[in-house]
Amino acid sequence: MNQPFSKKKRFSFFENIDNLFVVSVALLLMGGMVMMTSASMPVAARNFADPFHYFYKQGFAACLGLIVGFLFFLIPTNFWEKLGILTALIAIGLLALVYIPGMGLEANGAIRWVDIGPLPTIQVIDPARFLLIIYIAGYCFRQQKQVEMTFLSLIKLMIFILPACILLLLQPDFGSTVVLLAIVASLFFVAGFKFRYFFVLLLSLASVFWLLVYKVQYRLDRITSFLDPWADPLGDSYQLVNSLIAIGSGGWFGVGLGESMQKLGYLPEAHTDFIFAVIAEELGLIGVVLIIGIYALLIWRIFSISLHAMKHNRVFQGYFAFSVGIWITAQVVVNIGVNMGVLPTKGLILPLISYGSNAMTMTLITLFIVLKIGCENPVIKANRRI
């Protein structure tokens, strides 16, 4: 008698790991640590008298993400769907913490961090985004018929998404708001939202975007300054101009690892928002193409895992992986676009490469769950066949 998951271990989760997915994550993680350290050494030495300050913090965050991510990998993925509305409530609660007196921390004009006693500071958008992705994927799975038939399904979802967006805009975090709404719009389209409703949704989002930009002067300045950065190179376009100088200085093969000039105080946020410019300067066009190629490989594998899951009626898992794919794609495209001057500054980091301890930990945890979805797909397929 054939027994699924017997001693033969033919369908062991660990035997069905997506190798290309793992390789792409590993390459980005290791390469990112090298480039983040290179980009951050001048500012770390200046602010903390230790050039490896950010390396230690990022390394700890990566180790934490790998450990917690592996523990989450051991949990069956249908567990996350069962959490239901609880994930949205926790996410909104996290986003609201920054407004509690004594807890919210301000940096660079934004209140995005929470100080919880002896614990490290937390940038609340990172765990909140993870929870909201679970909720959005679960909602589209549970309300599949309504999503396909009525506009009311979107209104019901926005009961929880809209407060999250408002809390993000108040921080302010316009970039994360745009990414969150992009996830909602993309997933509804995949879930079968009627095209006429989808058109109304896109028109509504475009109207909201225009109002948010037009009514807030600094956002309008960001939008207009990238159109002609050389018109105000020492003002609103300062970051972009120095980013373009860094990219242009790299040539084909770069100036060499650790040899960037722009990171020496000329390019603000060289180890976070503008690390791509440092990569282009130090590794040149060849290095840039390699990095983009690895991201393309990772994104391809994420969407492949999503498609495989949906083909085998694992709808929630497919929606979750698809949402993660949209999130990673949006951050990569926007970050690179901002660095190259084809998009206005948004403050979105490059996943697995830019410095950001909370982002690093949550990105790895999220990718472990996507990996688990990929591992479950052939296992469940084989189990059904037996």
TrEMBL record:
GO molecular function: lipid-linked peptidoglycan transporter activity; peptidoglycan glycosyltransferase activity
Pathway the protein contributes to: Cell wall biogenesis; peptidoglycan biosynthesis
Transmembrane feature ranges: 59-76, 83-102, 122-141, 153-170, 176-193, 198-216, 274-298, 319-342, 348-371
Top-level EC class as recorded in UniProt: transferase
UniProt catalytic activity: [GlcNAc-(1->4)-Mur2Ac(oyl-L-Ala-gamma-D-Glu-L-Lys-D-Ala-D-Ala)](n)-di-trans,octa-cis-undecaprenyl diphosphate + beta-D-GlcNAc-(1->4)-Mur2Ac(oyl-L-Ala-gamma-D-Glu-L-Lys-D-Ala-D-Ala)-di-trans,octa-cis-undecaprenyl diphosphate = [GlcNAc-(1->4)-Mur2Ac(oyl-L-Ala-gamma-D-Glu-L-Lys-D-Ala-D-Ala)](n+1)-di-trans,octa-cis-undecaprenyl diphosphate + di-trans,octa-cis-undecaprenyl diphosphate + H(+)
Keyword annotations of the record: Cell cycle, Cell division, Cell membrane, Cell shape, Cell wall biogenesis/degradation, Glycosyltransferase, Membrane, Peptidoglycan synthesis, Transferase, Transmembrane, Transmembrane helix
GO cellular-component term (any): cell division site
Protein's name according to its UniProt entry: peptidoglycan glycosyltransferase
